[in-house]
């Protein structure tokens, strides 16, 4: 079993060790120039670790280096976990993708859609069709995030206390009830917009399964996959392994530590965010990618059928559109040209339009603190990248990392 140690000669799986070292040299410059405190990247092929880099510091101020067991806030890399969990219930016949979510979340039975006016007094109309499970999985429900700051509905979210988090003390059920009172940004199914849709999906999982999202994840996903360091918060015995969270500071000599945000994961959360709440390790998330690469199964634990996973990782946007043509122009965890969206994942449909070396069908996502992963079935490749720098748009780490990984493939 591949774990933290490099357990295969890169040449045995078609990778050039000398070229792989370019990854370290490139990322080392980010650390040496004070752009990143530290980072970690694991490159696996055919389910074996061929390259592992641990660079810089997990905690600059304490002088604590990045170690193989460092813990990271993965933020929106939580979303694919929630999507997998939802589709596990779908495979059991718990719902259809076309079902209105109001069957389980009645507060969403009569959504209204913003058409004009200021945040204090928006003009709305009734939704022309219900919000369906498929809309949640594809970010086409009409929801948004307060931190986008590009639309009036984003401002309404912030006015209600939803920016990077939720109002103090509010649980997930309360969040969904509050979001139900905020106008949608557009008619369900009309556009793609990165949003709290996955958090709503997490609440749907709770109601359908009769378990908290934390319990469902632990019993049905993390336990079977051996993801022993992944959860919604970092308990005290593990906090010495938790990386500090930083903000990009273009005119400073080093990133700026933001404990006001980073310390939130040191205590149990009031709400379980299926859209961005998890802490994990490179090892744990790599195991998750191995399950994906292996058609829904890892070390005897099958979460999904290969056919379900194949269905999730094709482009579901209407007419085969990419995010550039069907999405809203905003901060994102991925480039938009040549990338569609499946059920919980960005999916590459055209590497030429994407302007990045990769394969058709490669699927991926990232997190707000610049973490990222991708799975390439055509190359039997998975890559997990961890760091703790906000925002994720500060540097082009994700596309550069693809360049460096793919140039090392020589078979």
Automatic annotation (TrEMBL):
Q: Which Gene3D superfamilies match?
A: DD-peptidase/beta-lactamase superfamily (3.40.710.10)
* Tagged with keyword Protein transport: no
Coiled-coil blocks: none
InterPro entries in the record, alphabetically?
A: Beta-lactam-related, Beta-lactam/transpept-like, Diverse_Enzym_Activities
**Molecular function in Gene Ontology:** hydrolase activity
The record's keywords, sorted A to Z, are:
Hydrolase
Q: Pfam families recorded for this chain? A: Beta-lactamase
Beta-lactamase-related domain location is: 23-403
Q: Does the keyword NAD apply?
A: no
Q: What is this protein called?
A: Serine hydrolase
Organism of origin = Melittangium boletus DSM 14713
